[in-house]
Amino acid sequence: MTTILNEADQTLFDSVCDDAREAMLLQTIADTMEWDGQTGLPTKAGDYRADQVSMLRGEVHAKRTASSYGDRLIQLAETVKDADPHSDVAATVIELHRDYDRNRRLPADLVRATSMATVRGQQKWEAARKADDFSLFRDSLIDIVKLKREAGDCISDGTDRSCYEALLDEYEPGARVDQLQATFDSLRGPLVELIAAIKDAPKQSDVSILQRSFPIDAQREFSKKVSAAIGFDFQRGRLDETSHPFCTTLGPNDIRILTRFEQHWLPGGLFGTLHEAGHGMYEQGLRADWFGLPPGSYVSLGMHESQSRLWENQVGRSREFWTWLLDDAKAAFEPSIDDVGLDSFYHAVNTIRPSLIRVEADEATYNLHILIRFDLERQLIERHIEVADLPDAWNARYESDLGITPPSDADGVLQDVHWSAGLIGYFPTYTLGNLASAQLYEAAEQSIGDLPDQISRGDFGPLADWLRTNVHESGRCYSSDQLIKKVTGKPLSAKPLMNYLTLKLSPLYGLV
């Protein structure tokens, strides 16, 4: 791989990699402190933790924007300009240089201020959500939005990108609003039509099956067992609980997944864990010897989301999965679902109906939740609405798009942690991930052959191996668009997701 470099250039390349790895070392220390902040930080420790994380983020930024680091990357970029851009060495130089160019546009004091605001913002969001009072979070969010607007302006200055696109680019490199809008519009129409047909369908599910008593301890043990069965390696990761499920990587062999459980709602904890385990398996499938460098990093959050949604939905909500798992679930939660048959349980976990909470939404309505957030955060950044307008704007969109009005801030505008963490531009990647999950699963079925039979036996190895080989191990050597086309033979499209939903849901609801 490294034969494209002469001895002097190899030395230069190695020095750049050392600097990038050192920056990642500091970043993961900050990430560890933030993980701790989400899992058990004492209430009064928040301000000092914000100082700690802000200092570390500032040090990371300084390393990634040092002029000597940039000079070496520029020299190496000239060296690899005629090499295969998808090779490990060339991709490392190209992507690190891309990161450097983005990072150097952000003033150090803005990076530190944003880190401080988001750590404190998450603390304020947590308190506001518990109190069901947006006003407790409003001022923090005003500060965060102001800082993110400033960051977007800095990054987009002198380019053809908008402020919002500059923020979006951090999560989905190269994405454009008009392209996203076209893709989402092609999904919205057929999706709304399917949801409407299901609403009036002759066969409906009995969701009360999933609202019986499921002791938290039993859910915790069961979810861990299922995560291990599909391939999450607990020697390289762990499962914890928090108010908003997430996955974070603290090292090449330290992947933390977090979920939450409710005694009278089984899908929240189980499918939330499957979802985060999918994220974790992507991180565990990356090449550990390239950790901190592009070949050992995920390509985009859309692709990351495709892995979590694939395990949560294409696998976890399939009839084959519950053919394998239902008897174990009955034993784990005895006697809660002793009387439930496979057909009833399978239909229940595929219930389609509008709901308030995004992370608990069904496969079909989920994307409507995302499109609402995509529109609102874009309007925030583009100054078409202000933070004070958010609760009313949120409620109006839920009424118009889903036909329901949030009864409270906690179940409305405060339900997601993203804006408090400064993750503006993140939400569209969820729908991109849903589209990619269906397209990748379709390709895996064609490649593996007897995939449904394997799942019904609880044999997830072939699918996990296929994803590791075709998606995970590529790292950032291909763009997200390039990777999906390389693996599936087609550009990203809404058709595979709609085909999958229609073929699964139509028989369940008596539409065929």
TrEMBL record:
Task of the protein: Broad specificity carboxypetidase that releases amino acids sequentially from the C-terminus, including neutral, aromatic, polar and basic residues.
Catalysed reaction equations from the record: Release of a C-terminal amino acid with broad specificity, except for -Pro
Protein name (Swiss-Prot/TrEMBL): Metal-dependent carboxypeptidase
Cofactor section: Zn(2+)
Gene Ontology biological process terms from the UniProt entry: proteolysis
Record-linked InterPro entries: Peptidase_M32_Taq (IPR001333)
Protease among keywords: yes
Protein keywords: Carboxypeptidase, Hydrolase, Metal-binding, Metalloprotease, Protease, Zinc
Alphabetized GO MF terms: metal ion binding; metallocarboxypeptidase activity
PROSITE patterns on file: PEPTIDASE_M32
Entry-linked SUPFAM superfamilies: Metalloproteases ('zincins'), catalytic domain
Native source species: Rubripirellula obstinata
Family per similarity comment: Belongs to the peptidase M32 family.
EC number, as in UniProt: 3.4.17.19
